[in-house]
Amino acid sequence: MGVFFVGREKETRQIIKALKRGDNIILKGKYGIGRTSLCRHVAEIGRDRWNFISLDFSQTPAKVCSHLASNMLPKNNGKAMGYRHNRFRIANLDFDGQRQPAFVLDDIGKLSPQKVELIRYLAMAKRFRFVAVVENFLKADKLSLLRGWLHPALLLNIAYLGERPTREFFRHYSRKHHFFWTEEEISSLAEMSGGYPLGMKEVVTRRLGRQEAQEFPAGLPGWRIPKGRGGFSGQKAP
After folding, report:
1. Structural domain of residue 185, as residue ranges?
2. Where among 157, 192, 207 does a domain terminate?
């Protein structure tokens, strides 16, 4: 299920402003709080100015560089290049007149010396912007080291969504999937989820599952129970 993005207006403005002045970004918060979704939202807004490239930083530096190379470098007639060669070519790539690359370093839970070295190497080129998505459990000394190499960097702690965007989220899916939730039910769902994006998504996913189970009873593929009527009518689903 593609997630409907709501809220984060303040954080979005802060990130865009920081990127424009040449700063890097560090997004900190618990799993499921919406840091990666926020990155996608910013990438959509800033797509005319920056070329956002998402990188799974839980992988090895060699795999990260290989992914970067496949996105940024000309093809080498199928010839695979080594880690150091790719790293050098990326750092020295000529992209004058094109959108500035912005590397989204996603899922930073640990920082090995090799990963720190890759960040240092690319940051020293002073040609890229970085958006680092760090886990709450990243050790303080590693976070301090990351901030040092990405300096100047804006550190944002991503919190739970407020009541207004949480209600908007449930209202959107109620309309989209014909849940017919009342405003009272939407208020209850907003209070229950506490503005936790992952929990909000799970509420909608469970509701969709129940709706699908009603429309397509087990053992009767392609058949459904018409909305608003009980019992099986033998009506073929379109």
Report:
1. 163-218
2. 157
Is residue 229 a part of any domain in this protein? no
**% of the chain with per-residue pLDDT over 70:** 87
Indicate whether 188 and 145 sit together in one domain: no
* Residue 92 one-letter amino acid: N
> Which range is least confidently modeled, 95-99, 193-197, 199-203, 214-218?
214-218
Residue corresponding to tokens 């969504």: 161
- Which residue's entry shows tokens 């593929």? 221
Q: Which residue has the tokens 């009767």?
A: 220
108 secondary structure, DSSP code: E
CA distance 37 to 41: 6
* Residue 81 CB-density burial (10 A; 0-12 exposed, 13-18 middle, 19+ buried): middle
**CB neighbourhood size of 136 (10 A):** 11
Cα(158)–Cα(149) distance, rounded to whole angstroms?
A: 21
Q: Where are the beta strands (DSSP E) in 171-234?
A: 223-224
Count CB neighbours of 38 within 10 A. 24
Calpha distance 24→5 (Å, rounded): 23
> How many domains are there within the chain?
2
Question: Measured between alpha carbons, how far is 153 from 26 in angstroms, rounded to an integer?
Answer: 7
What is the per-residue pLDDT for 76?
A: 65
Whether 121 maps to a domain, the answer reads yes
> How many Cβ atoms from other residues are within 10 Å of residue 145's Cβ?
15
How far is C-alpha 237 from the chain's CA centre? 35
Dihedral of the CA atoms 71, 75, 78, 82 (nearest 10)?
A: -70
